[in-house]
Amino acid sequence: MKILGLFRHAKSDWQDPRARDFDRPLNERGRKGAAIMGRHVRDHGVRWERMVSSPAIRCAETIEIACQAAGQPVAVNWDRRIYLASSVTLADLLREQGGDPASILMVGHNPGLEDLIFDLVPDDGSSPLRDVVEEKFPTASFAVLELDIDSWADLKDRCGKLVHLTRPRDLDAALGPELV
After folding, report:
1. Domains of the chain by start residue, with CATH
2. Does the model's pTM come out above 0.90?
3. How far is CA 178 from CA 10, 152, 170, 174, in A?
4. Quick one: which H or E segment has residue 103?
5. Nearest-5° Cα angle at 11, 41 to 20
6. Cα→Cα distances 164→4, 46, 77, 170, Å
7. pLDDT by residue (tens digit) across 61-85?
8. What strands, in cross-sheet order, belong to the sheet with 160-166?
9. Is residue 179 scored above 70 in pLDDT?
10. Using alpha carbons only, how large is the chain's radius of gyration in Å?
């Protein structure tokens, strides 16, 4: 069995209309969400043997703030292919992981991360949290999947079970959607 963590970047800033999408930083709510989720990821109890991330500024800032809040510096493998990748690309990237770590934490973007959950977790009622993801996998969400594989090279559709899902608003209601 392998463990896959998926951590979507925190809320980004759209203030500068000239900024490239890749260069958008976190906004204040995003910084708060990254910190609270960093502590949660640490307290969840999985020791992440490898972290792979999109190098987009919002992902890099999410990791920096989350690790600082958790008091645990982590080595990151930056991979440009994660930036705005499809679930197929993300799965291919996971299959390529050398050294066969027991657990990988991937930091990236939607819709790729959400679609990866849908591809790996069967829609048969065995993972009730999948229904929550179908509603929305908001920024700074953290999901953990148990994968019924012996090697990352064996990754295939419908091989997983979604065993954990936490959104920032689950830990602090002020980090939930803004109601108008």
Report:
1. 2-172 (3.40.50.1240)
2. yes
3. 15, 39, 14, 8
4. strand 103-108
5. 125
6. 11, 11, 23, 12
7. 999 999 999 998 889 999 999 999 9
8. 77-78, 50-53, 103-108, 2-8, 142-147, 160-166
9. no
10. 15
Report how far apart, in Å, the C-alpha atoms of 48 and of each of 91, 101, 155, 158, 163 are.
18, 9, 18, 22, 16
What is residue 63's three-state secondary structure?
helix
∠ CA 3-45-11, rounded to 5°: 80
Q: What is the DSSP string of 112-180?
A: HHHHHHHHHS-SSSS-THHHHHHH---TT-EEEEEE--SSGGG--TT-EEEEEEE-HHHH-GGGSPPP-
pLDDT per residue as tens digits for the range 130-176: 999 999 999 999 999 999 999 999 999 999 999 999 999 999 988 88
Check residue 16 and give left, alpha or beta (phi > 0: left; psi -120 to 50: alpha).
beta
At 145, list the tokens: 């999947």
Judge whether 109 and 8 are in contact, CB under 8 Å: yes
Cβ atoms of 66 and 58 within 8 Å: the answer is no
